[in-house]
Amino acid sequence: MAILLYAAHNGAATIAALIGGHVVDRANPRMVFAAGCACYVAGYAVFAWDQHAWPVLLGGFLLAGLGIGFAETAESTVVALMLPDHLRGNGYGVLGLVQSMGALAASLIVGFLWATSTPTLAFGYAAAWMLAAALAAKVITATTTSTPREGQHP
Predict the structure, then answer these.
(1) Longest CA span, the chain
(2) Residue 11 CA to chain centroid, in angstroms?
(3) Percent of the chain scoring above 70 in pLDDT
(4) What is the C-alpha separation between 149 and 88, in angstroms, rounded?
(5) pLDDT tens digits, 87-118
(6) pLDDT (0 to 100) of residue 19
(7) In this structure, which CATH number among 1.20.1250.20, 3.40.50.300, 2.60.120.260, 3.20.20.70 belongs to the domain 2-143?
(8) Which burial class, exposed, middle or buried, applies to 43 when counting CB atoms under 10 A from its CB (0-12, 13-18, 19+)?
(9) For 105, phi and psi rounded to 5 degrees?
(10) HEC states along 56-98?
(11) How far is the C-alpha of 68 from the C-alpha of 19, rounded, in Å?
């Protein structure tokens, strides 16, 4: 069952990345990032709920998949828009480093909270950080004044 749940997660991520890319091309990455954050928070809320029914777990995995598909598409777009060509590869490398370090830290902390407390506290903690990321992105983008290159979204 776990393999099927994770496959559904990856399928949802693929679909969200395609949809997110389409929206970014017509609007801006902030909307797509916000959608990713909302999906993550909802998915983590499902996981925080103390239950074991596979349809509910499937819903959580689908929401988390949508979250990663939307959020990573938006993050990559922002790197592409903010950096000049000669720094873009380095920017993607730094983005990957930050994402990997964040995933490691989150896994360690959520795993520790799960093992020493409850899944509700562990995933509540994860949801709180995702909500904080959404709020921080709103504050940061509201205070950042970068001029996009021609044909690009702010």
Answers:
(1) 52
(2) 15
(3) 90
(4) 14
(5) 999 999 999 999 999 999 999 999 999 999 99
(6) 96
(7) 1.20.1250.20
(8) buried
(9) -60, -45
(10) HHHHHHHHHHHHHHHHHHHHHHHHHHHCCHHHHHHHHHHHHHH
(11) 12
Per-domain boundaries in the chain: 2-143
Q: H helices within 1-154, ranges in order? A: 2-26, 29-48, 54-82, 85-116, 119-143
CA atoms within 13 A on the CB side of 121: 9
CB atoms within 10 A of CB 154: 13
Tokens of 18: 């395609």
Q: Worst-scoring range by mean pLDDT, 43-52, 62-71, 83-92, 139-148?
A: 139-148
Measured CA to CA, the distance from residue 134 to residue 145 in angstroms comes to 19
Local confidence band at 145 (pLDDT 50, 70, 90 cut-offs): very low
How far CA 81 is from CA of 24, 75, 78, 101, in Å, comes to: 11, 10, 5, 23
